[in-house]
Amino acid sequence: MKRVKSIIYILGILAITSGIVLGQDDLRVPLTNPGSPGKLNLNAVFADDIIIKAHDGNDVVVKFDGDDDDDGGKYSRNGLRRISTNGVGLEVTEDNNTVRIKTAPNSHDLDLEIWVPKNFSMNIQVTHGDLSIEGVMGEHEVRATNGDVEMIQVGGSVVVNSVNGDIEVSMVSVTPNTPMSFTGLNGDIEVSFPSNTKFTGKMKTDYGDVFTNFDISIDRSQSASEISSGDGKYTVTVNKWITGTVNGGGPEFLFKTLHGDIEISKN
Which CATH number goes with the domain that contains 233? Predict the structure, then answer.
């Protein structure tokens, strides 16, 4: 059975990367252990939109739509009409319930829609493009360079960073005693948790404001630090970090952006 599955994947990769499949198509990836927790590893360089959703099935379904090769003669060279571009470069593999998807660096105008079982963790890296994740429960690590990140009705734990883009996360359940991180550089951060979530928040924005409707006990002692020079002089440094406990405190949840607002709210 393992040998048959390997052959299926090889045929799937050849069909996609060779340019045989140019329009939208479905690639169904069976798991080694259906019904058990799994993980999606995705590395995409250029993508217009990447949508990942949970479904009730026990396999992973990849739908993709690349650039239309026929441009109607709009682009030409030396009187010759172009009928093909770089096409879609996509590699999909599965090993012991870990599904790996990698796009080619020259794949432009690529839309991906991926359906995974609900009990699936995410390890996602996107260089250019917006990302949406919905309904998955697991350990999630997301890194984006240029694009917005939206995580809807997810559960477990989250570590997410977007350099240039907004971050929006709504969590329906939280793994107890697990630190989390929501960080960016240029963009707003909006995160919501169940109202009974216990955590210690550490928050900072240099050019923005922090908002919350949680009952948070702010630690005022962290607002400034005193550094002695040893010759009777000292320097007081203002610390823009805000720290505080929610529901009695718990693991550290980090919220940080340079240009943007931070919103932390109850579901």
Answer: 2.160.20
| Residues 60, 115 contacting (CB under 8 angstroms) | yes
Q: How many domains does one find in the chain?
A: 1
Q: Half-sphere exposure (CA, 13 Å, Cβ side) for 107?
A: 29
What mean pLDDT comes out for the span 85-90? 59
Segments forming the whole domain that contains residue 97: 2-266
> pLDDT by residue (tens digit) across 168-206?
999 999 999 999 999 999 999 999 999 999 999 999 999
Task: Give residue 22's pLDDT.
Answer: 31
How high is the pLDDT of residue 263? 97
Question: Could you tell me what percent of the chain has a pLDDT over 90?
Answer: 66
